[in-house]
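Assemble and predict.
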Amino acid sequence: MAIRVFLLLLLFLSSAIVSFSLYEDQAGLADWHQRYIGKVKHAVFHTQKTGRKRVIVSTEENVVASLDLRHGEIFWRHVLGTKDAIDGVGIALGKYVITLSSEGSTLRAWNLPDGQMVWETALSSAHHSKSLLSVPINLKVDKDYPITVFGGGYLHAVSAIDGEVLWEKDFTAEGFEVQRVLQPLGSTVIYVLGFVNLSEAVVYQIDSKIGEVVAQKSMVFPGGFSGEISSVSSDKVVVLDSKKSILVTIGFIDGDISFQKTPVSDLVENSGNAEILSPLLSNMLAVKVNKRTIFVKVGGEGKLEVVDSLSDETAMSDSLPVADDQEAFASVHHEGSKIHLMVKLVNELDNVLLRETIQMDQHRGRVHKVFMNNYIRTDRSNGFRALIVMEDHSLLLLQQGAIVWSREEGLASVTDVTTAELPVEKDGVSVAKVEHTLFEWLKGHVLKLKGSLLLASPEDVVAIQELRVKSSGKNKLTRDHNGFRKLILALTRAGKLFALHTGDGRIVWSMLLKSQACERPNGISLYQWQVPHHHAMDKNPSVLVVGRCGSDSSAPGVLSFVDVYTGKKITSSDIGHSVVQVLPLPFTDSTEQRLHLIADTVGHVHLYPKTSEALSIFQREFQNIYWYTVGADDGIIRGHVMKSSCSGETADEYCFTTRELWTVVFPSESEKIISTLTRKPNEVVHTQAKVNTDQDLLYKYVSRNLLFVATVSPKGAGEIGSVTPEESSLVVYLIDTITGRILHRLSHQGCQGPVHAVFSENWVVYHYFNLRAHKYEVTVVEIYDQSRAENKNVWKLILGKHNLTAPITSYSRPEVFTKSQSYFFAQSVKTIAVTSTAKGITSKQLLIGTIGDQILALDKRFVDPRRTLNPSQAEKEEGIIPLTDSLPIIPQSYVTHSHRVEGLKGIVTAPSKLESTTHVFAYGVDLFYTRLAPSKTYDSLTDDFSYALLLITIVALVAAIYITWALSEKKELSEKWR
Amino acid sequence: MTQIIRSSPVLAFIALQISFIFFASTLTCTSGSEDSCYTITGRVKIPPSNVIGHTEKFSNVKVLLNGGHKITFLRPDGYFTFHKVPAGTHLIEVSAMGYFFSPVRVDVSARHRGKVQATLTETRRSLTEMVLEPLREEQYYEIREPFNVMNIVKSPMGLMVGFMVVVVFLMPKLMENIDPEEMKQAQEEMRRQGVPSLTSLLPGAGASR
């Protein structure tokens, strides 16, 4: 007993010292942060002789970044808003990065060395259109050539120095769409070529100083243009006609327009539709026709001739001036597992300046984009480097026949995440190989002790960090006792599956989805397919990856089954029907494969795996399978039930028809569904009852079939500021998805979305905007079961009215009651998640992804509807916090500490084996992982536990015992002598 | 960045006297849209600071309108601008690592040609003077307490040692204070009961006897 008390005391004391949040030297110990930029759209090299060599890129994730060309690291980057897509990038005056975004209506300049925004200019635009950025290549820095921008019907000239709009031309009346802006060197006149209604070519000559139209020429082309254009020289462009069968060369020398038609069939026999490829080559253009890429040379008089032809899977760069007025371009094509990079002169295609063959990972797919840059070698010859963007969005720099660096930019667009266990450690491999000798071990702990007593020098701190990483063995590829080592499986938009190690975030394996039906399926979602218990079955776990051929929801789906340990595809199948919803069923077959239902667009559901065993399991549970669909557009939630096998229509015995069981229709004139949410299906609830302070029992209404729905008035569906408080109201519902019964309805007048919610156990927490207070609010709703409230003691539980043997019917109204409370919250929110632990005993924390891309951990106790202004003594002891009108934002409880998870999209939590600890993974443009202990690590010693101090104490105690023994003996002896 | 927090929190705090100055200019949106749109301009003024990483921190400040509907960045002089904002009530938030800013309620008046009124929503203070400071500086890390003898003493090990010290050095003192008569009585009692003394408990005690 005494020992127990002492141990408790010890535990209490140690926990009182260990704080909840991190010390600075603990950052990066259990967490990691990876910075990405996304799939590169444009790249501009900046390789002056002096200074660091860099490449400026803009990406599909609306990131503009400056990368180190030597190592691929990010010098700086900025993530623009989600609606602020970048249309063009350039470097002006040799010191500013210019970006054009939002369809040509926002022009920004960033300082090249440090990424500080220098100026920002809003340009007028009337309608949505293609936009165009033309940054003059300045040879003389002292002269300020204006930047010309076209977008939304306006042509602007903007000074590169301060972003001042020098002049603007309104072309909206004419419907003139600018295609090319050409600025001959040394001339003040710029040529602006464009089309009117895709049938008339117009050339304006505009004085670049004042914006006055010097001359204008137009000419109607009877066939009409298709809009694809390639400029081949300073006075010629080539376009396709509307039928995509005739190449039209438009010359506009000195303002005179001339057309010259060349049917594609003259160049290639049996030609189909042609397509002009984007690379800009001088006096040449690349055309894709008949699955071949042909190079067409444009002669002096606009005569076209085919000079070369390549397979269509060739990616090309723009041409680049190399020495002696010659231009060169790079092309990359595949051959097996190798890629060939060739740099050729545009004028002499036979003259290959560079031919390199590089081994390439199969799982990177094809080359999508090539950006080339040249440099002068020490022997005065030209060297080339190529930046290539692969199909899986990765970015690689090739130089001298090798991959200098690569960035896995696919991870910037994660669509779904799940976790998986690592393989069990095989016998014969020793775990404790880290601690070499007793001396080393002791030295390490003395260092740690020094660190915790703040006596460590900076070198010691570094040594401590290294030691900690090493001794924790956190990077091993086997399962550990606490379940801290796991795999995070992330599916990206490019259809690539990554397995990341929780220890350091490295990629353990990656796999690109493949399909016979289409070239490259998109990844949609991930499911646990087979999780064999390692004692029962010696089989590797696997996941189901659901993909789709094309972006349309009716496109046929692709299923891939991937071995989690090896990353190898087990099988994949083109299922021949579309995928609208995937329902993992709570049944597994004898090989522990989980049954899944896939609903398609025509109202059928399909059972997977397609085995007779699965079918027999399914037939047994046929009556008990329900699901729901949410029609956000028409405001109807429908409940479905299985009807029969669809044998009448198809011979597929794994296909079933369904019928509608119930519908909840929201009036479209007053309510619009903006958010729906259910509990996580694999969530563990430890206890169903909650004991009040007055020894009262509250039964949680723990149902897996509760759906949270939030609706707003249609006017309030827009952004904040577009609606007055009187016009908007927010209504939330809790709906039973089996019966379609609305269990609870709560309306917030004068509030609007966006609603971010989290649903766990018997509570929902949601975040919305209160227009009256003009603040964000968080509301918690807890739902309790009234029907079992009578069962207060054992006898009532057994003999009472509502015991478990009493018949239950779904027609009876469930007796529930709710408690709710609202609080202000001082920040916009992007997403909310909740921690999840193995047994659900540990108290929960809300993980709030804020607008600043940080993640705030907020104890659930702060959003407890039982909070009152003056809690009684008993309530205080229970841990009820006095009510405040707003939720606290404690900076130390940001789990991301000093990092930002740029472009935060989602937070995923997964339990570890240790009950106190949970894995947290956040994804967006960046990735962030950490381990959290919401109630502190009460079930294990922390990393900080000082073994050295323990050892010293024990030594001291032993010494003390011997000293006292000696003293005691001496005293006894002297007493005996007395 | 973390270095600044540690090295000179005081300096950084002094350095951050950020002020917002709001004004708006009417800027009729393009002919295509019927509503007239306005511009909101504010200023984040940071006096020069010699803290390392200061500029980097400054360039990572984002200003967000209406929960991220529009995002803009600061110019070197601290100014930021939102263009094409319709009349109405809006919310501006500042996201800067290391500082907490109150969201700002901004009313853009349609009647007064885009006159802007700003109020801090956290403190409900109206920005008539148009000066705003960040509500507080944020420390993301717990500060380690400096070395303290009391910490060691208070730790479980310290308590164990302390307890031993008490037993070893104070108990004999207490024994001495006891009346010798009573002491003798107690000792006799102990002998009769055969309670082993400390020496007999220890190994080797028997040998020495």
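Residues 1-19, 428-435 of chain A have pLDDT under 50 and may be disordered.
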